[in-house]
Amino acid sequence: MNGFDLLAIGAWGVLLLKYWLTGQLAVLIHPNYFPLTIGAGLLLVGLVGWQGWVRWREPGQPQALAEGSQLLPRSWGRFLLLSTAVVGLIVTPRPFNSQIALESGELLSMTRTMPQQFRPVNRPEARSLVDWVRLLNTYPEPDAYQGQKAKVQGFVVHPPDSPSNRFFIARFVVTCCAADAYPVGLPVDLPEAKTYQADTWLEIQGQMATGQVKGQRRLILQAAKITPIQPPANPYLY
Question: Which of 27, 148, 11, 28 is nearest to 81 (CA)?
Answer without folding.
Answer: 11
